[in-house]
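Q: Got a minute? One more chain.
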Amino acid sequence: MKSNVHIIIVDDSSTNNLLCKILFEEQDYKVTIIDNGKQAISTIKSTIPDMVLLDLMMPGIDGLAVLRELKTDEKTKNIPIIIVSAADTQAYINEVMKLKPLDYVKKPIGLNDLLGKVEYYLKSMNKI
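A: Always. Here it is, folded:
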């Protein structure tokens, strides 16, 4: 059943992307890696994944702009999004949380902890 679950990971760090892709694919999830905000918006709107893991600090269109765009679009506003970011300014985090992502996880996070969070939320939504 997990192979029907599509997770999009949006992060400009190729190392983070590779580690997450391996982790989630080992658990039989379908994973798409995106390394920039512009492509993230386009891909997410066209594929409607089961979950998005979104970094905030990216060049060009940052994660906050991606989150704002997705949450204000009728087609994508209900996609579960977990923010995974090293951003630590409380004012910035408050701005992000106003857009109601599913969760906010501070980097660095252990991969097993991240997997646990993702699976917890997917189970609560009856996706797995």
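A: The chain has one domain: 2-124.
Q: Perfect, thanks.
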